[in-house]
Fold each of these.
Amino acid sequence: MIYQNDGIENGMSRQDMCILPEARPEAVSRDTIEALLAKMTLQEKIGQLQQLDASGDPLAEDFLQAVRAGKVGSIINQVDPETSNTLQRVAVEESRLGIPLISARDVIHGFRTVFPIPLGQAASWNPGLVEQAARISALEARRNGVHWTFAPMVDISRDPRWGRIAESFGEDPYLSGCLGASMVRGFQTSDLQNHGAIAACAKHFAGYGASESGRDYNSTNIPDNELRNVYLPPFRAAAEAGAATFMCSFGDLDGIPATANDYLIRQILRGEWEFDGLVVSDWNSVKELVVHGLCEDARAAAKAAASAGVDIEMAGDAYQAHLESLVVSGQISIETIDGMVLNVLRLKERLGLFEKPYTAADEYPPLLSEAAKELAKDLATQSLVLLKNEDRTLPLKPAELSSIAVIGPLADAAQDQLGTWVFDGHADDSVTPLAAIRQRFGETLPVRYACGLPYSRSRDQGGFDEAVAVAAASDVALVFLGEESILSGEAHCRADLSLPGAQAELLEQIRKTGTRTIVIVMAGRPLVLTDTLKHMDALVYAWHPGTFAGPAIADLLFGDADPFGKLPVTFPKAVGQIPVYYNHKKTGRPPEGSEITLIDEIPVGAQQTSLGMSAFHLDQGFEPLFPFGFGLTYSEFTQSDLQLTANRIEMAGKLGLSCKLTNIGQRRASELVQLYIRDVAGSLTRPVRELKSFKRVSLEPGASEVIRFELTQADLAFSRRDKTFGAEPGKFEVWVGTSSVGGMTATFELLG
Ligand code: BGC
């Protein structure tokens, strides 16, 4: 896959944060790893396959003894550098073979410096910044003794009810693959032995995002066509970017839990993709094979997972308890175990742990360094999506204001703005919007604050009067609504996606004051804002932006920064529309162009009719509230002159496309130009549109630029009816636009 946008073209690369790699220490050779394997007892081999939770008291004697006895290959959830070094010393100096431990941690969107949640990072559509954020996260984590993160999560997420959509890059295979690959490169650098590199883990393999009804851990049933064309491509991109490890999903896919799914792990990942890295289970997911009803007991579960190709068991003890007897009884071959152990040893080798097992915090930049803060603010700024801007309410001009009201439960919520998965972030580091706005104006402009509701779910309207009074007395009301961080993330799914608690009522009351109302939503998912949208002049979708939410949002509101963000996921009008995503199939009866009669237009007593029989809901039509790829700017752009270098291309040929973008507004601004295709007729039905590339362009008012794209057969390829991968000759439509709707269009033909 080719990703044309590296995000660095806008001068965003940061030499200052790139710590030059140390000279690579003499690597342990492959022979040494195999020689080491030859010396290992079966118990020591099985020990390497065990990952233990070290969040309790890892310095307790029983834990140390397990390490000393070679019964632990890796640990999870220990981030104190001294404790890590102590454990490592026991492994290296006191265990028989001195094999170092690998220490793992969920560094999902930052370590101490918290960047936007991955869904917010995806809204930046900026692979370069995402890579840099991962690099900073890796440096901070490695400083504290962490060698391995369980990120990126590249699960395609089409269901905002699913709490883990927050951890994803959204609904699109291309964008998710592009950003997943960037994150892998950021964590790992070009070589895992480089200073401050950590191993990445593409998860959750595979199909986890399709959990039925958006309920976490629920079953998934994904036909092979969709699995291979929608859910797997981002994993493939992560593997191609060099992801050292993969984690399997908790879910069952078509009746086979991912932890025992040899089709996924052995056939596709290791066979077809030739992945030679390490596969880890999810937390206790080996033993959960019993709960799933696939295996009768933990022994059968250990056998099923090991046979499917799961190398390390995270947190559970089925491998420790049963692999030995499975080998002795001939139910698992020693070759299988050796293969698993080699994958673990090879990762340790790649990470340079044999030469340099300990961490030395003073070799790293401090946590929350100036470069990290600057980057966190930039990425937060670029993740903000402007969804409504009536009468150009934004940007605000401070000179025209005499007072500002800051209202809402998310205006000063230091922990909540960090989002889900922030084990190592500190709320004390957060700069909230209230703090940033106060700091910005000091004594020069009165900033009045009333939270209105103490937290997002609250129904206590006791604070409404104060909030309304504050709004009424101000020129503009900045209303910070949304979800607390605990309402999204793992196991935090919702069936109702409206603003929680009495927030909608609070907004209505504020709006009635007549004061201009700007809503900033912080949330871990797309919320359904259909009814609330009319109660605001402008809407900024901020996701959970991380440590520097405040300065990022303030810069955007007051015009020091321009809106960059574009939606990485479709916003539904109603929960009942879900799943609603842009790259759906056309069906035999697409609603566009057909006559649609909505529920209130149906005459009472009407008889059944075939008029308007197309794929829509009587009450919501078929369009979402906001489409994938959408986001406004503070300026206005037009596109013209779509040109193709040919209207027919050979299979091995290239198609050049160009189009002119002009800033016809009054401000310098940037726009994200997106390229979509449609394969008009395939051996399998193809999506109505598929994103294939994107480019960001910044233009002065009145300026134009010609944007060029290129398509090759690789961009047109898919997993076909006969299961082979490739492009099919025939007609294609192409769009160049600023969202997944509309744009300039043309057709071309791919010759066989
Ligand atoms: C999650 C994984 C995570 C693991 C370790 C599990 O519950 O599904 O994504 O990496 O815990 O914390």
Amino acid sequence: MILSIESSCDDSSIAITQIKDASLVFHKKISQDLEHSDFGGVVPELAARLHAIALPKILEECKPYFKNLKAIAVTNEPGLSVSLVEGVSMAKALGIALGLPILPIHHLRGHIYSLFINRPNSIMPLGVLLVSGGHTQLLSVKSYDDIEVLVTTLDDSFGESFDKVAKMLDLGYPGGPIVEEFAAKGAKRFSFTVPMRGSKKLAFSYSGLKNQVRLAISESANLDEQKKADVCYAFQKCAVAHLIDKLKIVLKEHAFEDFAVVGGASANLYLRKEIEGLCYREHMRLHVADLHFCSDNAAMIGRCAIDAYHLGRFAKEISVNPKKSF
Ligand code: KG4
Ligand code: ZN
């Protein structure tokens, strides 16, 4: 079995995964949403302190599995440096105490492997739309090592733009699920323009859309619940349309038989529905992770670690790389 640790942002999580059949034996996650909600975003110093409390609590429950472990896996990149350090320190200490090797895991690769939790085989080659709080990327995934970035964002990420809109509307944190909920109650009142529509440039951009929302809010008198819902409705529609626009351009050059959406924001049901339609029209099979494995978790790190284990990716030195994207 592999014990995996995830602490790259504001979720403390540990999982135990069976190497032989990829079955998830144990998984627990303690989120810090409540603690950060007063600040409208993650406060790194607070996140690190909370990891230092939560991780040992979860580890206590893993003790019965210690004798079955073959390796310790840990997210070491990318993420908040002070948060990553908490998980990496615990992994190092466990490695020394139990005499086990360490497998450093890239957080974004972990999100891709969220698709294969509890499944012994992975599906590759695969086109992947990765939408998280820090990243918005369209990837061509051919193997564990062969991952090509086809499109990335010039500024804000998809998930981050939801967080910022929620903050502007004073709806709480994390913004994604709340904005989605409000959007479902909204109607057509505002109309925002889809970023970069008509441009063939292969890039995402969310800062312009965010500013359109800011302007609409400042020009709107009496921003009641219904108007807030209407802002969310128009924003979500545009944000997703932008992803679909760029995807359509990429699909002209890259024919994928299998396509996936991963990352925290892949839990958005409106996004899933739109991608489903696109996949149907383009004759691609769509793959998504279970809803509770979309946001950060150690189960995806453990599943990814099985391939790292078979490839012998054990760390001699383990470093924390906060900015390391694909
Ligand atoms: O992957 P994740 O858990 O953490 C990072 O690696 O960043 O993604 C978190 C991001 C946040 O920005 C959150 O607002 C967004 O995913 N998110 C959503 C939804 N659920 C989470 N965005 C849109 N709609 C959602 N339902
Ligand atoms: Zn993530």
Amino acid sequence: MRADKKTRRFSAVNILPLLKTKFIGKETIFLPEIDSTNNFALKLLKGKMVSNGALIIANYQSAGRGRHGKRWLAPKGKALLFSVIFTELQQSPLLPLLTLAGSLSVAEAIRQGSPSLKPVIRWPNDILINGKKVAGVLAETSAELKASKPTTGAVLGIGINVNQRQKDFLPEIATTATSLSILLGKPISRLEILTSVLLKLEKNYSALEQGQHNKFWSRFKKLSSTLGKGIRIKLPDGRKISGTAVDIDTDGALLVRLDSGQTIKFFSGDIEELQWAE
Ligand code: BTN
């Protein structure tokens, strides 16, 4: 991975010629600043005035969002902050899988660009390198869309820590976050990573859409750091449950075997991976 060349500013004009995708990013909206690319994308989706695969990318987000209401903030110009709009997606069964497709695509793109880095996926949406979070994924559909039947359309938001320094991270994540630049010891090209992630995303999304789930799962499970591990899962209502992550179901849910021997399915939750593995 190289640094952004001075002549290649990070803008739609420079992104478009580099894209090798068939439909993702063919419509690209570059925003110097926005509250959240996911918010912007959800509004476009609701207004039905956008094409499948449209890319919304920002140089800065004033109110970037992570899962479970967490903040996702990065200094101007340092991170990759974007959302892809899927207008055709049926909310069920593909929506939970979209998060996993996003996570897989980021991990694969980083691996390909920097073979020395070994990103893994902490189910369902954290991309970790050496145990620290380098990227996160947030798939959403709006309440208005949910209310309309049949439900179609979703937004996949991706945030990748590219050129942040350690002191750039919010205090609450200062010890658990890292960036590609910190790991590689040099400035990194956001353009290069973006084009690579989008190409992987198109491949992974299409595999799911065309029912080629086996290929998808074998790639995903290979990069999962969660499977086979002892985990503690924090549920949206605050309860914590411990067990062993035994598998990921075809609908994207995590299967956890409790000490009692019972296996439970989790669709959401914050995972803490413990040291022991099966
Ligand atoms: C997480 O790890 O909790 C998910 C983080 C997702 C952040 C991205 S940045 C682009 C898009 N816009 C947002 O407001 N959030 C997502």
Amino acid sequence: MSVRNSKISANVDTGRRTLIKSAALLPLATPLHSLAQTATRPLPIPPMLDGTNPESGRTKLRLQDGRHDFGTGFKNRTKGINQSYLGPVVRVRKDTPFTVDVANDLNESMACHWHGLHIEGQYDGGPHQEIAPGTVWSPDVPIAQRAGMSWFHSHTHGVTARQVYQGLAGVMLIDDDDSLAADLPNTYGVDDFVIVLQDKLFDTMGQMAYPINADTVEMGFQGDTLVINGVIAPVEQVVPKGLVRLRLLNSCNARFLNLTLSDGLLNVIASDGGFLEKTVQTDSLLMSPGERYEVLVDMRSVSSLSLEASFDEDEISFSGLFNRLLGRKTASAVLTLKAGADKGMDASIPQLLASMEAPDRNTAKVTRSFNLNMEGGNDNQLALAVSWGNVCANPEMGMGINGLPMKMDEINEECILGQTEIWRVNSDADRHPFHIHGCSFRILSQQGVEPPDYAKGWKDMVYAQDGWSEVLIRFDYKATKQYPYMYHCHILEHEDCGMMGQFTVS
Ligand code: C2O
Ligand code: CU
Ligand code: CU
């Protein structure tokens, strides 16, 4: 068991070498697998931070180094925002500007991108807006969109994947009058929970590893251990007997997650861009990296229910297929909800949630096509090779879009303010989650077919493989050449290796 992670080629924390040496003198640590399977930890509730012009002035976010225990008993060197790992849940409100000071106390630069916000390029926090160590970025971000779940994360050119893996990400909840008045669970940490899902790889010393080699870059980093709000799953939480709301973010670098309930159906009420038109019941919810969904779980007449996750690859692997044929479940519980003594919200699952028109492809004036390439766009790779131990420099590993890798000084598309367009995405290999900055869109087709019902609302993520995925999109905010928007694969290693492009809106 101690050689389980023998393929690890590098640790995130390079200063750990000496620790390994001295650890050789210690008795062997409990292997992580057994730790992860036997111990159930309480669900960590990330602190909530008021982003609506608190009386104290501007909202403060501090990027900092941390020491964090994922539940192995060992401290990891991590990075976090106002804490040792990940960030607080920032709560903002429609029509109230989010005035924020992002202070960088790290010893490296970081760009802090607000993923999902409909804002001008100058506020977007893309790779052109790096915050140097010791400096503060203070945008007054207008919040003009409907309620929903967004998030913020590192978007530093070439090192986004590593920085997010180390912990530089957090959730942002946008409220509006409708969402606050809705007959839905809304008491944070009681019947309303934020769930950040990530996969990690730990060595036998409980240290987070981030191997970078040709495989992890090609597949994107894939860990074997699921972490939920910063601790190793499974976790549990006592909730009132009533409806419970889970606001889910897949913050894995590259893993698609397939979510199910131990019993019954998931009631999906919102996607990336806020409420769906009506609640969608589904037995499984596929989430790509970068996606958000909100679900309701009915705890009125059960004593416990578990949210289960499987890595989507399990479904198509031989063992996954075999298990399915035998009717065996491959998913494992990541979060168990236990009904406590208190009565909770006793309302039925709402049917209608928001009004929404069906997307009409005839309103589009322009169609743009994006082919995601795993090979070919390798001429920007020299710079990245330095930080990536030469992996991107492998000519086979040059990634790009329409044959071109991301170049900081090149604008790939110029869009017209207020114009409706169709963006179509395809890939020459593998499945890629595609993200567009500055707006939300509607999916017309995904991988050549209709998207699942839960993906028919407002989205900023769509995935592509074997057949065009099409979205209907309109840009309502400006992005200049100086601060353009990005579109990219949200497998962060692919993004860092060049599968990204830039566009202006004017
Ligand atoms: Cu979630 Cu361009 O990023
Ligand atoms: Cu984004
Ligand atoms: Cu990709």
